[in-house]
Structures are given as C-alpha cells and as structure tokens.
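Hey there, shall we discuss this one?
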Amino acid sequence: MKDFLINTLIFLLVLVGSLLVGWHFIQEDVILFYTQVPIVVEEFETNFIETEETAEFDWEAVGQLEAFDWLQYVGIGDEVSPIGELIIPSIGTRLPIFHGIGEPNISIGAGTMLPGMVMGEGNYTLASHWDPNPGVRFGGLDRVQIGDILILRDSNYLYIYETIIGNNYIIGDYRSDIVDYVEGKIFLTLFTCTPDGFRRVKVRGELVDQLSVAELREMVDLAAEMEILANLSPSINVEEIIEVVEELEYSEIPFPIVEVALAVGGSFLLASFVVWIANLGARKKK
C-alpha cells in the first residue's frame, strides 16, 4: 500500500509538471483557437457605424489582464464587430480591430484609442493587452524591429506602414501624446502595457503605400504584382506583402489537436517512465 501511494504521488507530480511545461508550448495555439473572431470584410463599415455610440475610450478604466482571463471570452467571436484588421508579418500577428478600447476589444484584438480615427490618415493609434506569446493580442510587440512592415486592412485597401519606432521602445508611463497628430505625417501607433505595470511598449510605423485589395486579387501574373509592389520602400519585404495578400480570405483557426495530444500523451508517458525507473531502482536495492 505504501509503495502504491508513493508511486501515485510520483506519477502525479511528474504528470502535473509535464503538463505545465506542455501548456507553455501549446497555449498560444489554444488561446488563438478559442478567442478567434471571424473577419467579414464586407461588414467592417457597418460595424463601425453600429458601434459608434457604444465604443469606450477611457484608458484609465482598463485593468490588467490576468493569466486565464481570456477564458471568459471563449466563443465570443460571433458577438463582436470588427472594423478592420491588423497584420504584423514579422511576429505572426493577425488581429481584428475594434472601435474603442473597452473590454473585450483589447482582450481578443486591438482597439482604437480615439473616436473618428481613419486608416491611412493622421495618427491611427491602437491598443491591446500584453501577452507572453507572440501572435496573441500585442504579445511580441517588443520584438518588432525598425523597418518591419505593419499592415492595416479595411473593406477596400491595405495600408502599408514601415516601422520607424520599435526595438522594444519603452515609455515609462502612460503618455497621452502618443495619439497626437503630427503635421505632414501619417502614422500607425501601437501601444501596450506589460504585466509588471511599468513597461509600456510603443511601436510606430509611417505610411509608405496604400494598395487596393480588389486590384491585387485580380492579378494573375506574379510579375504584375511585383511591378506594382516595386514602388514600396526598398526596405519593405515584397514577399511578405504577397503572402499577406494570398492569405486575406478568412479561414478558421483549427484546434491544435496534434499539439495537445503530444503534450498530454507525452506527459503520461514521462510520468509512467519515471515511476518505472523509481521502481526499478527500488527492486535493485532489495
């Protein structure tokens, strides 16, 4: 009986530890699956109009997002109304854009920080919660490098920005001037706050081109795409733009069944192996 209890305790300890390690590697895919939002381009303009009266812009009312708070937004995709999409190819980010920074907007996507902001004009400023995983909310924003492309999408256009402020640019406290218009400049500004409450990361890009989605889709010859895209800044990766255009159609993120199975199955196998090794050692001593 004593040996059974010891084996059970060892098994459970190793199993829980292994599952926690496995969760570290699969949590990004799981969170993305359960909080995904269908992107219906044709509804962007209607959604903007419908959410004008309900949009919230009080940053001081926004609290920290705890580790498993995202669970309350499981299946919320059909209840929210995106007005656009943000794409950051360098860190694998594709987020719905919402009108305002209230919850759940910045927990499952990015929200506009001021009313009346227009893509491709002025200083389009977005906020989102931090996440330890790149690709989830504004996780990975600190990895955006100067020269990386940032892409906004509305019903008709892709707005291509080149990062001019990045490389883990930190502002020590909330600064209202991040939303300010700069005469003669067209910016996209991204802003988030890390869980420690002290590191606020800002990324800013400057508009370099505005591309018609309809025209891009009509192109059959890749060379024709290259010819149009050749007018972009020399530092812009043309292949990234083409890849984004090819993937514009919304496709549902599948449940990471293989990754989950490997994490769970591997944990059980490891726990069983450790118990077997412990028993083998005990038998040798006898």
The chain has seven helices and nine strands.
